[in-house]
UniProtKB/TrEMBL annotation, chains A, B:
It is an enzyme of class 1 (oxidoreductase). The keyword Cell cycle does not apply. Belongs to the gamma-glutamyl phosphate reductase family. This is Gamma-glutamyl phosphate reductase. SUPFAM superfamilies: ALDH-like. NCBIfam families: PRK00197.1 (NF001221), proA (TIGR00407). Pathway: Amino-acid biosynthesis; L-proline biosynthesis; L-glutamate 5-semialdehyde from L-glutamate: step 2/2. It is found in: Cytoplasm.
Amino acid sequence: MSAAVSQTAVSSTERVQAAGLRARTASKRLALLSRAEKDTVLVALADALRAAVHRIVNANAEDIERGRIGGMTESLQDRLRLTPERVASIAQALQDVASLPDPIGEVVRGSTLANGLQIKQIRVPMGVVGMVYEARPNVTVDAAGLGLKSGNAMILRGGSAAASSNAVIVEVLRVALEAHGLPADSVQLLDGGHEDVDALITARGLVDLVIPRGGAALIQRVVLGATVPVIETGIGNVHVYIDSAADPETARAITFNAKTHRPSVCNAAETLLVHRDIAATFLPDALKQLADAGVKLYLDDDSRAIAGDVPNEPVTDELFGTEFHGLEMSVGVVDSLEAAIDHIDRFGTQHTEVIVTENRAASREFVARVDAAVVMVNASSRFTDGGEFGFGAEIGISTQKLHARGPMALPELTSTKWVVEGDGQIRV
Amino acid sequence: MSAAVSQTAVSSTERVQAAGLRARTASKRLALLSRAEKDTVLVALADALRAAVHRIVNANAEDIERGRIGGMTESLQDRLRLTPERVASIAQALQDVASLPDPIGEVVRGSTLANGLQIKQIRVPMGVVGMVYEARPNVTVDAAGLGLKSGNAMILRGGSAAASSNAVIVEVLRVALEAHGLPADSVQLLDGGHEDVDALITARGLVDLVIPRGGAALIQRVVLGATVPVIETGIGNVHVYIDSAADPETARAITFNAKTHRPSVCNAAETLLVHRDIAATFLPDALKQLADAGVKLYLDDDSRAIAGDVPNEPVTDELFGTEFHGLEMSVGVVDSLEAAIDHIDRFGTQHTEVIVTENRAASREFVARVDAAVVMVNASSRFTDGGEFGFGAEIGISTQKLHARGPMALPELTSTKWVVEGDGQIRV
């Protein structure tokens, strides 16, 4: 059994369509599994990964070595690296998924109609879910686990940087699935080039949903090229707005945490907006703390005037529109809450937006008028996360409005079906 | 004020993008309206339509005359025709929407996290919703009413057959909106050609959702060409499966109702599948009743052998795959429930599928294994309808799995937003 959809002489489209058909067949089995059956297999998959730790770490070393030769930065190498401890933690994540409630079969709504028909809307699997992602191989395992728990067959297309790690991981999972009586094709890995991605996102009738997870270029490619339904994820140009009625110490702590706690991820803050009335009180200390932590600051004229001697460069509209993924931050002074909302409306990506204020009217207006997946009052943007929200897992953070918005976990990987039960009702 | 986005020398793309920008601006107002404000305006819109009944009927007469000259069938002319009574009923539909609960602001989920953060997921409008549809002008009013109630700005692109009716209706609505202090651009009508549709479905960042409603060609065009999110609607190759344990009289009544009650619509049945063990008991009378009602029958060899002398033609795979929209029906005998499910899996469009049976195990298996928006036991497929389900209105029937599946009404026109409230929480 090959761990991946093997490359042959046939075209990418034919290979991917064949993979889609096998996934479709597997999905019919998965849709009918009980929670107990799924949880047993999830635990077995975790065991299989633990048992294969050396093979996985060795394959990962090949990826790292290839990356090193190719000039990959140390920090990217570190993101990619799998140690025995990290493999153990990835395996544990599968067991955590086993402990989550089964979304399938949940009754979402229901009623008995006047004519006696009993209608209920229940959660069912999507069917076949494609996932196109970059870098970290733990996403491979998370996607397989969440897919199995939600009754979906997964077609995964990981980044080339993690190709060896992903190939071994998926092979281990497939062998373990089959050993427990489930179709190996519940999880498939595409190992072709970009043409595999193009074939996957246009496989209408075979693929029910594609989730891209990665940088802006990857997401654009998928969204613009897809003819199957897509959920966009993860572009986060996050703003922290410090209202005139903010508590300065709370504002400083939230700003620092949102920017520096983990600057590479999508829920990190990129822009700090400060109300003019609190700028002189708040900004000098806040900017100094950021600069001391190595944050490169881009300031507008008003903030520079009160920034003291912190190193800075002038901000531009382009910088205001940039997700830095690192220790950089744009800073602007605004005249009003209204101006802050307008700025967010213009430059934001509808991911997470934060207001810091002790004023009730200001927080209510910000929450009502800012259009984003997550709007926060007096909390760090870093809390936009499936784990933090108590979902137990996360397959990505949706920044679109259709189907799912914000952190996505098991319910977001489901569709619904109406079941109507009668005793011979006809329409008159 | 023009009732429609006027045709000028500028390109279709520029005109539609300008319409999108105006809709975006209007949507920000609509998102903040209270239920009372929206309901007041909905009643006023209904009054305005009633007051304009003669203008609307006259404009409609132009459409009918153009259709007649162009060779439109009598039945299509009848679908298109607006009488004073039909205008009154369209106006009443707006008042019915006013009486429905407001979906906006509904708290879908929520909890208080261990760290004290209070999170809640609330319904918010989509923003700007495009709708591309054919024929009946009542859809124009329904879309405007459901859009307003759900806080969305609507960009409508009706069929050319109803161009005059739609233009007057939208102008009446826009004047009434403005008279009540709401932006006229809450409802816009595109009156350009197919290039307007292409511009609408690729207006990323301006249009949050497009719903196509019409024939298969229209839906294909939108789904394949769109780069904005789409909800597919309405293709219904509906099957009625008569199980061996069916009550023959119930089976006959449901089959007849599903096929003949309103054969032109998507929830009408197209294929009758009959278990071999009940075929001789059930089929002769059922087929005779269908034939007597004018249904053209396409029979497989097994059903023809027991059909008696009802007129029929041989069924083909192509006919099994056809949504007739009229008094035609394919009929097949199957050896088992399994075979019926396989047939539905192969030819169905995941709209509505019906089993008639008194056997509990058979109904449970059918419900579990048939993948469709609506699965019915002992009831006519004609009940797949927002009104019948108690939604009070319907904007279409989704046959896709993402976001909405089955009849769509107000909640399906919304997205959600997470609101997170804290008192200074940061991630550690």
